[in-house]
Design brief:
Distance between the termini: 48 Å
Shape: elongated
Number of domains: 3
Order of helices and strands: HHHEEHEHHEHEEEEHEHEHEEH
CATH topology of the largest domain: D-Maltodextrin-Binding Protein, domain 2
Strand content: 15-25%
CATH class of the largest domain: Alpha Beta
CATH architecture of the largest domain: 3-Layer(aba) Sandwich
């Protein structure tokens, strides 16, 4: 199975058409069909089913596509490694939106101090978006709270993020609430589907408490600023609230019977080749997490 054969196969996968694939590749349609036939003969299975003018991958075809993407990705990495110049290859790392507001500043500083020559970049998104980017080789590693080892991803426990309920004295001077008492409070929460919202909802369900937030936002930092202004009670990462707590702009409210903590993982594709540079990067990310969340 040659590199060119895999490139033809992935082009057919993307276009769902032998004719369109041939046009993109500058080949004849019979040559593309012959390449696919050769693959099907080699693997003794059908890779596509035809539905009208459209090709649809079979279950075996989808499996081969994942391997093909990984193999071509490793081809590119091998080439880059053999032809490295003084400019190192950049490593794309995925970070959840929540992590970008808490762990990322410390992580970026730590990685730069450990190896200033290393080139890396960060891409933010939801955990679901980052899983998709990993599987499509758009990022190499990610830090997220979603564990999906069954999808061909390796998940290493990294740290636990503690969340707390906070408000300003101008809203309430109480230091503890029950979940039931929160019903009459103005709750400032993340949007539905976010990790912190899911964590809070899980605690509420256990106490048969229905969540009806006064305000929803897509940023923990925004929630913190709104809480500082006296609008209501925000549930945000404790690490993010530390400065405001020290300066007495906010105080914590203990929620009786609730534990708001989220496990984060360092995640990468199980079939990815881990060379010395990647192994060192993984170790450094783990070391930074230990320092920040020990």
């Amino acid at each position: 199975m040659t590199k060119r054969l895999l490139e033809i196969y992935l082009t057919v996968c993307d276009t769902a058409s032998m004719t369109q694939a041939a046009e993109q590749l500058g080949m004849s349609q019979p040559s593309v069909s012959g390449a696919i036939a050769q693959l099907e003969k080699n693997y003794e299975t059908r890779l596509f089913e035809r539905h009208g003018k459209t090709l649809e991958l079979t279950s075996q075809g989808r499996r081969l596509r994942q391997y093909a993407e990984t193999i071509l990705d490793q081809y590119d990495r091998a080439w880059e490694s053999m032809h490295e110049t003084e400019n190192a290859v950049s490593v794309p790392v995925g970070i959840t939106n929540e992590t970008a507001e808490t762990f990322l500043p410390s992580l970026a500083r730590y990685l730069l101090s450990e190896n200033a020559e290393r080139k890396f970049s960060f891409k933010t998104g939801t955990s679901k978006e980052l899983m998709t980017k990993l599987l499509h080789h758009e990022i190499d590693l990610c830090i997220a709270d979603r564990r999906e080892e069954e999808n061909g991803l390796t998940c290493l426990p990294l740290y636990k993020e503690e969340y707390c309920a906070v408000c300003s004295d101008s809203y309430s001077r109480e230091n503890s609430f029950s979940l039931a008492e929160l019903k009459s409070s103005r709750l400032l929460l993340r949007e539905e589907g976010s990790g912190s919202r899911t964590c809070f909802e899980a605690a509420a369900v256990r106490k048969s408490f229905r969540i009806d937030p006064f305000l929803e936002a897509e940023s923990d930092f925004s929630l913190m600023k709104l809480a500082e202004s006296g609008i209501g009670i925000a549930v945000i990462p404790r690490k993010l609230a530390e400065k405001s707590l020290k300066k007495k702009r906010l105080h914590t409210i203990r929620i009786k019977g609730a534990d708001f903590r989220r496990q984060y993982y360092l995640i990468y594709r199980s079939d990815m080749y881990i060379d010395q540079d990647y192994s060192s990067l993984i170790d450094e990310i783990k070391e930074c997490a230990e320092k920040e969340y020990d």
